[in-house]
Amino acid sequence: LSPGLLVVAGSFAAFRLLNRGLERLVPPPPSARRNRWKWRNIWTSLAHSVLSGGGALAGFYLHPEMSKDLVGTHPPGAHSLVAVSVGYFLEDFVDMLCNQKLHQSWELLFHHSVVIICFGIAVLLHQYVGFALVALLVEINSIFLHLRQILLMANLVHTTCYRLNSLINLGTYVVFRIATLAWMSRWLFLHRQKVPPATYAVGTVGMAIMTPMNIILFYRLLRSDFFK
């Protein structure tokens, strides 16, 4: 087995163990006790977002040369971070499949499938790791998306904390999600001659799926938090 696949397997096991132990670490409030698995799931996702989003930012800060070559240049830590994320998305996929009805989770399952395929290619080929790390910048916004869900489940909607998080969530959504995906789509288009056809097809399909999904989610957030 390649070291990358071992990291993926170790990450899957670690996030699974974290998910099982989170109810003791962060006991659910009375309003969330009817949906305990969801409470654990969101906290697990928050842990991954902090790790991967923070790691991606640190990666580009410590290794600025990576931004000039997103295909072949990357430090070992960047490859490991992408592999860890593959393990997390696999764990979250299994968690949702086991605990949620398909009609409730199909969008996220579809999203996770696309991410696992794209990141999996980067891990196996040791290429496009920098491009995958750009994608992980999206997780900076996911931190505030998950905090929003936690506050909702804790019945803290009518609080200053929720309102502040909503504003930060919206700002980071535009900067780290919409702008990042637009930049990735532009990069793919400009470098289409240098990227193998199969890889280019996978990346293009991934961007074509992610972009409308994120625009729809942005509209839902605006409608829920600002247009009520």
TrEMBL record:
Membrane topology: Multi-pass membrane protein
Location of the protein in the cell: Membrane
TM helices/strands, residue ranges: 131-147, 167-188, 200-222
Gene Ontology cellular component annotations, sorted alphabetically: plasma membrane
Keywords from the UniProt entry: Membrane, Transmembrane, Transmembrane helix
Keyword Transmembrane: yes
A Gene Ontology BP annotation from the UniProt entry: plasma membrane organization
One Pfam family per UniProt: TRAM_LAG1_CLN8
Keyword Protease set for record: no
InterPro entries: TLC-dom, TLCD
Domain TLC: 34-228
Protein name: TLCD2 protein
Source organism of this protein record: Leiothrix lutea (Red-billed leiothrix)
Organismal lineage: Eukaryota, Metazoa, Chordata, Craniata, Vertebrata
